[in-house]
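Usage

Read records sequentially. Each one opens with the input sequence:
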Amino acid sequence: MSFRIITGDWESVREDAQRVRIEVFVIEQNVPIELEWDEGDEVSTHAIAYDEEGQPVATGRLLPDGHIGRMAVIKPLRGCGLGREVLQALLLQAREEGHKDLLLHAQTHALAFYEKQGFIAEGDEFLEADMPHRLMRLTLD
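and closes with the structure output:
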């Protein structure tokens, strides 16, 4: 299966990013919808992955301050490398924007995924949307 990944601003990708995030965060993980959308969406660069039929299947965002967030892959496609591809698109964007340090709040079950991409966990576990997270950092070359 092949995927196409695009990056864009919130105005151009809003509908597709929302579809993925509602499926993963709101429906699957029970995040209250009022916590899912924030002011960060409008100022971020978003990456969206599409399947062969053009359906959005994964997303993530890069905020202007170098935070990566809202990484989500629909359940049937987890484990096939799609999350890594979306993350790589965001890392490329971060390099183009001149970021040196990137941060993210990783759900604890995803720590190994981010560690494989070079992120290092820092600090203690904390709750975000009632789920355990850790702060992670990646220093770019």
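Summary fields computed downstream for this record:
- Residues 100 and 140 are 5 Å apart (CA to CA).
- DSSP finds five helices and seven strands in the chain.
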